[in-house]
Amino acid sequence: MTTVLIADDQPLQRFGFRMLLESQDDMTVLDEAANGTEAVRKAAHLRPDVVLMDVRMPGMDGIEATRRITASGDRTRVLILTTFDLDEYAYAGLRAGASGFLVKDAQPEDLLSGIRAVASGDAVVAPGLTRRLLDAYVHHLPAGTAEATAPDPRLAALTDRELEILTVLGKGWTNTEIAARLHLAESTVKTHVGRVLAKTGSRDRVQAVICAYETGLVQP
């Protein structure tokens, strides 16, 4: 059973999410939060598998709440809910430790599959969509980050093959595409991806893509 905490300042939005999630045999909503402060407190107490986190909320926003929840080291993962076209904080949410993001007007099946993906340790966002998001908001990177010439310590332990894997992850390639283009077995690709995540300290694939941008392996 996947347990979920819904954090959104709109009561009708929370009600809609709850109705959808509780219609599933493998999901249950533990509680709701109307702001970031409540979300952090309830996540620490309830330890849900997934927090559905709105970005714009009164008081503590979803970005800071995400940062605090993921920094706690608990198992809870955060799925950012954003309007995308209007919400310039989606990228900041991913950098804060979120495992992905969904557009609020996504189809119900996309929300459900996204929650399941995050709960199982995967990233919700399709790699290509992740790259488009980062391209749109790469200006949030500190000045010079994307063009840094000094070696980044996160890359020091990577082999040449793992550097190659991290680079193509940043370019939005799926495991299947990596296997076909680099002439590797898909099981081998999964092993390489796992090692890249571990060595770079990336929580998931989304964080690895961000790492590829921040270290200059991928340019927008």
From TrEMBL:
Which CDD domains does this UniProt record tie to the protein? Answer: LuxR_C_like, REC_NarL-like
**4-aspartylphosphate PTM positions:** 54
Q: Is the Phosphoprotein keyword given for this protein?
A: yes
Q: Which residues form the Response regulatory domain?
A: 3-119
Xref: SUPFAM superfamilies = C-terminal effector domain of the bipartite response regulators, CheY-like
Q: Which Pfam families match?
A: GerE (PF00196), Response_reg (PF00072)
All copies of the HTH luxR-type domain together span 151-216
Question: Has the keyword Transcription regulation been applied to this entry?
Answer: yes
Q: Which UniProt keywords apply?
A: DNA-binding, Phosphoprotein, Transcription, Transcription regulation
Q: Which InterPro entries match?
A: CheY-like_superfamily, NreC/VraR/RcsB-like_REC, Sig_transdc_resp-reg_C-effctor, Sig_transdc_resp-reg_receiver, Tscrpt_reg_LuxR_C, WalR-like
Gene3D superfamilies in the cross-refs: 3.40.50.2300
What's this protein's name?
Response regulator transcription factor
| Organism expressing this protein natively | Streptomyces werraensis
